[in-house]
Write a structure and sequence with these properties.
The structure holds two protein chains of two kinds.
Chain A: H1 2-7, H2 10-17, E1 30-36, E2 41-50, E3 53-62, H3 65-78, H4 83-98, H5 127-142, E4 147-149
Parallel strand pairs in A: 1-4
Antiparallel strand pairs in A: 1-2, 2-3
Helix pairs in contact in A: 2-3, 3-5, 4-5
Chain B: H1 2-12, E1 31-32, E2 35-36, E3 38-39, H2 50-63, H3 73-93, E4 101-104, H4 107-122, E5 128-132, H5 141-150, E6 153-157, H6 167-173, E7 178-184, H7 196-203, E8 209-213, H8 225-228, E9 232-236, E10 247-251, H9 253-258, E11 269-272, E12 277-279, H10 293-307, H11 311-330, E13 335-338, E14 347-352, H12 357-366, E15 369-370, E16 372-374, H13 379-385, E17 390-394, H14 401-418
Helix pairs in contact in B: 2-10, 3-10, 4-5, 11-14, 12-14
Classes of the chains: A alpha+beta, B alpha/beta.
Chain lengths: 151, 419
């Protein structure tokens, strides 16, 4: 069970049970739909960008605990951030999810609660669950697509 | 005729102690996460018995060469093994002749072959193709593609709340415009066994040809294509204890004969000039290129393995196992079985409260239990039940009640973790 508790940390279970910033966002100027075709999960990300800042951000959709918690934690952390800060956050989370932490330069402390997602790395089949929301956010900032996929 | 008699003879002496078959499967004798593996994902792919592994290895070690080409010894052995496998499969499903047994990569390619070839020769924009809401994507998308190309309409038979086909609606959808009826024998997502006799006999009142997706049926029961009187029957090697990358399309020879080739290349031709190409006879007309020879040999060995089993005993065994699993699952709080048809193969699709299927899958995996989670390539089924995904435990002849108990233990862990 220890392994599983590393993945399903209390922060993740809490954000899955009570997702923050959940629902549509009125006045959003970027809306991106993210799908994971492997499991059929889908989420819609609403972002309001003004003055190169993420002024507001919300999401809705269905997904597993990892996917919902990652979306929820992401909206909490990204809200109010500058586009540069969010871009840097994306890079750090991506590295945390995909690379060996001992050889990685990222500082988990900077990521606050998002560090709870670091256990996902040990579960390669679940990395996509955690990264879906982040790819949607990246795409929303770039304004490059209104639909993204993990595949 | 002699082979039919032989197979009936074998059946009467066939193996009835199903629970003893597990020891023939080496993959099941291992630990994952330091726990004995419980493999409940056979609807996605079954494990192989030692006899299949040995047959493939023996072929690869000493008999491999290209088929139908060389005059040398190895080519002759390879051809005999490949054609021998075709004859085993013919006898096993009681096809009239080997011309009717086309080797493909699997069920998906078999269905694509029929769709592409029949589409070209048979469908116009005033025709209709009937599928069902229960189908795997591989029995939907090839028809969508061909309907787009020909302008034909694709219609789908709806399901009842239990996950059975609504046969009154099927009746209503059939008309003189129906040219093809494509239906699964057993639903991969729900386990529902469809009443093929009724479905086929109703289609016979129209001009429609009937193709059956048998991928999920062949691991559980023996199919007799002549008794069924279907026009085409598609199935996969790796879902019936054989290798991946090999499957079969059975088709009535009169129909296959009249159909244009699916792919062009070597093997499927008689003569080629730049003016004209003459096609080879059946079944080679539909087998362009070098085939999966060792795959066919492995599938032949799988058919030998299955031929020794008493299928009445197997049906009883799997039905007992399914009913035990269903009863035990329903003891868990908030468990819901998805697919409660009266006639079901040993497939148990379920949800557990609001815990997402992927989380269930990861948690039971750490307990050594392999289940499938997701939409099972049957998104319309998920839409019908208004859910995103299910957990699916699918049982084969090598599973037992201990496997069910381990699954339930894993699901209890999930409940502990999430509440």
């Amino acid at each position: 069970m220890n392994d599983l508790q590393e993945l399903y940390r209390e922060v993740i279970l809490d954000h899955n049970r009570h997702p923050r910033n959940f629902g549509e966002l009125e006045g959003a100027n970027r809306v991106v739909e993210g799908v994971n075709p492997l499991c059929g999960d889908r989420m819609t990300l609403y972002v309001k960008i003004n003055d190169k800042k993420v002024q507001d951000i919300r999401f809705k959709g269905t997904g597993c605990a990892i996917s919902v918690a990652s979306s929820s934690l992401m909206t909490e952390k990204a809200k109010g951030g500058s586009l540069d800060e969010v871009e840097s956050l994306f890079k750090q989370v991506h590295e945390m999810l995909t690379s060996d932490i001992s050889s990685s330069s990222i500082n988990l402390e900077n990521l606050d609660k998002l560090a709870a997602l670091s256990g996902v790395r040990e579960y390669p089949t679940r990395v996509k669950c955690a990264s879906l929301a982040w790819h949607a956010l990246k795409s929303a900032i770039a304004g490059s697509a209104d639909k993204i996929s993990t595949e | 005729m002699s082979s039919v008699l032989e197979s009936q003879n074998t059946l009467s002496h066939a193996y009835t102690d199903i629970s003893a078959l597990r020891k023939d499967f080496p993959a099941l004798q291992q630990n994952v996460y330091e726990k004995p593996l419980v493999y409940l994902d056979s609807a996605a792919s079954t494990q192989r018995p030692q006899a299949v592994i040995d047959a493939v290895v023996a072929h690869e070690r000493s008999n491999h060469a290209n088929v139908h080409r060389g005059v040398h010894q190895l080519s002759q052995r390879s051809t005999e093994a490949y054609e021998g496998a075709r004859e085993k499969i013919r006898a096993y499903i009681n096809a009239e002749s080997c011309e009717e047994i086309i080797f493909t990569r699997g069920t998906t390619e078999s269905i694509n072959l029929v769709a592409a070839s029949l589409g070209k020769s048979r469908l116009t924009d005033s025709d209709e193709v009937v599928v069902t809401w229960m189908e795997h994507h591989s029995n939907i998308v090839p028809w969508q593609l061909i309907c787009e190309q020909t302008g034909a309409q694709l219609l789908a038979v709806p399901m009842t709340p239990d996950g059975e086909l609504d046969l009154n609606e099927y009746d209503r959808l059939l008309s003189d415009r129906t040219k093809i009826v494509a239906v699964g024998h057993v639903s991969n997502a729900l386990g529902t066994i469809n009443p093929l006799e009724q479905i086929i006999s109703k289609a016979r009142d129209t001009d429609a040809l009937v193709i059956i997706d048998g991928a999920q049926a062949t691991p559980h029961f023996r199919v007799d294509v002549q008794a069924l009187d279907c026009d085409f029957y598609a199935f996969s090697g790796h879902k019936m204890f054989g290798p991946t990358g090999i499957g079969v399309l059975y088709g009535k020879s009169s129909l296959l004969d009249a159909m244009p080739p699916y792919q062009g290349g070597g093997e499927m031709i008689l003569t080629v000039t730049f003016k004209e190409t003459l096609y080879n006879s059946l079944p080679y007309k539909f087998e362009a290129g070098t085939p999966n020879i060792s795959g066919a040999v492995g599938l032949g060995a799988a058919v030998d393995f299955l031929s020794d089993i008493n299928f009445e005993a197997l049906a009883q065994y799997e039905s007992d196992l399914l009913s035990y699993a269903t009863t035990e699952l329903m003891k868990l709080p908030e468990a819901r079985v998805i697919g409660t048809a009266k006639n079901k193969a040993s497939v148990l699709s379920f949800t557990l409260g609001d815990i997402h299927a992927h989380d269930l899958g990861t948690i039971v995996d750490r307990e050594g239990v392999a289940i499938r989670t997701g939409h099972h390539c049957a998104m319309p089924v998920m839409e019908h039940f208004q859910i995103a995904a299910t957990g699916r435990a699918s049982f084969a002849l090598y599973n037992n009640r201990d496997d069910v108990d381990r699954l339930i233990l894993g699901l209890q862990r999930a409940l502990e973790l999430f509440t």
